[in-house]
Design a protein that fits this description.
The protein is an alpha/beta fold. Helix content is 50%, strand content 14%. Helix 1 runs parallel beside helix 2 and helix 7 packs across helix 8. The protein is elongated. The protein starts with a strand and ends with a helix.
Length: 281
């Protein structure tokens, strides 16, 4: 049995911790200054309350950090300040650069795994993936913790930052797409065509992210689509809606100007043209 401390168990953190608890592991948490809602989540998840962070860390082999992204570094600093020497799993939705800063805070006393949770909170026949990057033995430890649970442990390689990069890549589409859908529906609603927009959307393919080979066609047509995005931005402004996402799309498309009508470009070249060469140098 492995003893874990879960830090700041929100909806996702409590659900992941509950899977470890149901698998027979002792999962600790610190209720000091936590809300009644958090306390109730922890109770339902089967977590064991500890009076202090130090007491929880002294009893734990693993720390699982799942908290709001803006708090990730402060949480890591607080754990490092207690002299924790076990395995620190940084599983927050943060950039690879922030992951590296956190690693510098946690090391050398602790080992660290870069983690990313993708999917809904696990349980009730729902599963999520916990991608981990780092030392293979540490990954195996986490795999044993969540064995036969609704948390599927996957490896993202041995390079710290890879799991965070995967999370950022996925969130860039998933979160932005949903936000853009809200803007599009608000625009259609303001012009009385919301039902027509919904009907058209149901005719669309839904595999944009899962079919990267189709991106060559996007790049080839970007020279025509960028001006259209400026028209979209103007329409949004006239309806009192934020135009920034349309303007950003136009800016991205301008990076593909050299790919005009080149539908057979290799995917690697299409993606390279999106990167800011001045940043890469």
């Amino acid at each position: 049995m492995t003893t874990l401390t879960v830090l700041h168990p929100g909806a996702m953190g409590a659900a992941v911790a509950a899977e470890a608890s149901r698998s027979g592991h002792d999962v600790l948490w610190v209720p000091v200054d936590r809300s009644a809602a958090t306390r109730e989540r922890a109770r339902k998840a089967g977590l064991t309350a500890c009076p202090s962070l130090k007491e929880a860390l002294d009893a734990s082999e693993v720390v699982l950090s799942l908290c709001p992204p803006h708090a990730a570094e402060d949480v890591a600093v607080s754990v490092a300040g207690q002299g924790f020497t076990g395995l620190y799993v940084e599983a927050n939705a943060i950039s690879p650069e922030r992951m590296e800063r956190i690693a510098s805070e946690v090391r050398p006393a602790s080992s660290i795994l870069d983690g990313a949770v993708i999917g809904p909170p696990p349980g009730d026949r729902r599963t999520c993936r916990l991608y981990l990057a780092g030392d293979g033995q540490s990954v195996d430890l986490l795999r044993s913790v969540f064995q036969s649970s609704s948390v599927e442990v996957e490896t993202a390689g041995d390079q710290a930052g890879a799991a965070s990069a995967l999370k950022m890549s996925f969130a860039a589409f998933q979160k932005a797409a949903r936000t853009l859908a809200a803007v599009s529906h608000a625009l259609a609603d303001s012009h009385g065509v919301a039902d027509l927009l919904t009907a058209e959307a149901r005719r669309m393919p839904s595999d944009f992210l899962s079919d990267p080979d189709a991106l060559a066609g996007v790049a080839a047509r970007a020279w025509r689509w960028a001006p259209e995005m400026h028209e979209v931005a103007e329409t949004l402004c006239a309806s009192g809606l934020p135009p920034q996402m349309a303007e950003a799309a136009a800016a991205v498309m301008r990076r593909w100007e050299q790919d005009k009508d080149q539908y057979d470009l290799p995917l690697a070249e299409v993606l390279t043209h999106l990167r800011d060469s001045s940043h890469m140098e």
